[in-house]
Amino acid sequence: MNNMNLYFELMQTPVFTMDDGCKYYDKIESARSAVKRLVKQGSVVRIRNNMYTCISGETGVPIANRFQIASCITPTSYVSHHTAMEYYGVADQVYYDVYVSSETKFQTFDFYGYTYQCIMAKCKQGIETVKYSGGVKVTNKERTLVDCLKDIDKISGLEETMANVQGLHNLQEKKILQYLEEYNNQFLYQKMGFLLWNIRKQLGLSDTFFEVCLGRIGKSKRYLTKDANDVVYDKVWRIVAPKNIAHIKNGEGI
Fold this sequence. Notes:
Blueprint: H1 3-10, H2 18-22, H3 28-41, E1 44-48, E2 51-54, H4 66-70, E3 78-79, H5 81-87, E4 97-102, E5 109-111, E6 114-120, E7 127-129, E8 137-139, H6 141-150, H7 158-165, H8 173-183, H9 186-196, H10 200-203, H11 207-214, E9 222-223, E10 231-234, E11 239-242, E12 252-253
Parallel strand pairs: 4-6, 9-11
Antiparallel strand pairs: 1-2, 3-4, 5-6, 7-8, 10-11, 10-12
Helix pairs in contact: 5-6, 6-8
């Protein structure tokens, strides 16, 4: 098989490995040589260890998008957090950090302007393989919501997270409760109840949902974010939060 034919075959797989190249050759050495020639020509680019993608002859940029790349980094990797919000089109801006959940750790790496960051997966539910997407694996909207609220301080911050959440509509509360149950985190129940109450109709959440959350918050008083200065206390959810958060009503000053 000549280089051009191999290039067109490999284009059918947005992210490929050397094993994919071996399908077209009897010997692995021949496949490696052929892929290396395509890399040297600029027709293929190496993403990271044994991960490659073709370069489009029309646009001069990689065939694989960031969601496809994130889904192939490890056997268990998938798009999550605010990168999943981007995938669903509800993020209010483009982020250059790509958040990837995985059961096995990988080192942060950069590729074509994006930084791929590993988040160790602690929940195995709510991951979807999207049909006709070129291999994208992504948390569903309900799991994405839960993850974003769980990791507010670690990832995108309160304001960005809530701006993204405002783009969600009509979620399945049964799924949200399943993921909350798997995480089994009192503080997460507090954050869910406190931050989502005022947009419950938009999200399709019933009073029963909040009753369940309220029953799981325990007796601890917690700060919503680490760096809050001008704060108020919400007696219902036992949350100390920034005063300027629009979701707070009838707060009691600290």
